[in-house]
Every structure is written in C-alpha cells, then in structure tokens.
Design goal:
Blueprint (H helix, E strand, L loop, with lengths): L2 H4 L2 H16 L13 H7 L3 H13 L2 H4 L9 H25 L6 H28 L4 H27 L3 H22 L1
Length: about 190
C-alpha cells in the first residue's frame, strides 16, 4: 500500500488542495500531491463536502439587494440539488467525451485532479460574494471582479485539464467549454 493510500481523507484532502493551489500557480509538481490511485479517484468525490458550504455561501449572496433592488429568491435545497447534479453529471459526460476524443485512459487522473481543484475554483468564485457581504465595493465593481475571476477559473480548469490529460490546446478548450455548458445548463434548470 502506498503512502497516499494510507493517508486519512483529511490528510489527502489537504495534500490535494495544496496540489491544486500549486497548479493554480502553474507549478506542475502539484500533480504529485494528488492520490491518483483508484482509491484516490473515489475519495476525490468527497471534495464536495468542502465545496458545499462555500457554494451555499456564494449562491446565497443577494446581488440584487446589494444593488438596491428587490431581494432575490435563494433556496439552499435547490442549490444543493443543482450542485449534486453537477457533481454527478460532469464525470459521466466527461467519460463519454474523453472516449470520443480517445483520451479516456487518463480519465481517472483527470477526474481526481478536477474534483480537488474545484475546491480552489469555488474559493476563487466566492470572492465576489465575500466582497458583497462585507460591503467592500459597489455591485458594479463586483460584477467586473466576477468576470475577471470567471476568466481565471476557466483558465485554471484549462490548465489542469491540459496537465491531467496531455491534450492539445484546442481539445483542452473544448473539454472546458463542455463542462461550462453542462454546469450552466444544470444551474439554469435546477439552480
């Protein structure tokens, strides 16, 4: 049994999140911090436990009220359903997509890294909600910040996809675009 398989889930989560931050800084050595075994693949789905509170906080941010409008309609249950569906659907869609692109042999590595890096992506995505909640900036500035951070998270996903799958730029971009479309569609229907 390797050292990575012997780690507790909490230790594995910490190591993987550090690896994700390393990858965010374009340090390819971050890949070595993930448990890329079959067990690590399944354990990576537990990253949702870290994502849920961040996601709920971000989803509950009332942008319209912050801009002086009517308060929005937030439902934690609806948000959790949307997140759960995204968490299950993307790995299934990715499997078929990677098969179609003939890179399915790296599927488990990709999903493992993807799941853990989504913790970091969620933290980045929550920054505008923190700014709104604390009143540190006016809503128009936060909208601009949100678009900047969206670009950063999409680039981050492109980078980790490229490193996980070893795919060319265009193929990597297509995979990231597919994930974005799937997430947007699920969020629109269930969010």
């Amino acid at each position: 049994m390797s050292e990575k398989q012997q780690k507790s889930w909490a230790d594995e989560a910490l190591s993987s999140i550090i690896g994700a931050f390393d990858l965010l800084m374009r340090d390819e050595q971050g890949m070595q911090k993930f448990n890329l075994s079959a067990n690590g693949f399944w354990r990576s789905f537990g990253a949702i436990l870290i994502i849920i509170p961040i996601y709920l906080f971000a989803a509950s941010t009332d942008w319209s009220a912050a801009a002086g409008g009517e308060p929005g309609d937030f439902s934690a249950i609806r948000s959790l359903i949307s997140l759960s569906i995204q968490w299950v659907v993307w790995p299934v869609v990715a499997l078929y997509l990677l098969r179609a692109l003939s890179v399915e042999k790296f599927y488990a590595r990709y999903i493992t890294v993807f799941n853990w890096t989504m913790v970091v992506a969620m933290i980045i995505s929550a920054v505008p909600s923190i700014v709104i909640a604390t009143g540190l900036a006016w809503p128009q500035a936060v909208v601009f910040l949100s678009f900047m951070l969206l670009f950063i998270t999409l680039y981050f996903e492109w980078y980790i996809t490229s490193k996980s799958l070893g795919t060319p730029m265009g193929v990597t971009a297509a995979i990231v675009a597919a994930d974005f479309v799937v997430s947007l569609a699920i969020g629109t229907v269930f969010g």
